[in-house]
Amino acid sequence: MRQRRTIWRELSLMLGGGALVGLVFAMLPDGVQQGVPSAWPAGESRSAMFALCSGPVRVTCVVDGDTFWIDGTKIRVADIDTPETFEPRCAEEAALGHKATARMIELLNAGPITLVPIDRETDRYGRTLRIVERDGESLGAQLVREGLAHRWGGPRREWC
Which residues of 29-41 are buried (b: 16+ CB within 10 A; e: fewer)? Predict the structure, then answer.
């Protein structure tokens, strides 16, 4: 499995995305595309380098303040909701959403993180649900303290 992932990464770097990369990605074991990445077991602390997501191929990057990709798996931070950056309802929400995204990138890059399972594996969009911790403290709670997120409590809350 590790060899297949290496080949996929090399192809994605060479081709910058596209149909061939999609085919190679489709051949990878399910753990790389969905659920907890086998290279990142639940409860294990690991480090990775995150940047803002761009382009069609997403391996390890941040989408917004509460969603990121790691090792090809899309993670939804389970304990928070952050302002939208892709379809914000007002300029204030957009600005705060970009701040939350930048801060999440900083927090994820600050050292090893642990992906902690919750009572559900995925959300209705198929994203893997995890609380993200460093040294036993939730990164989501950090964003809440900084005013960049709300604690998760169901449907989307207003930021405008």
Answer: eebbebebbebbe
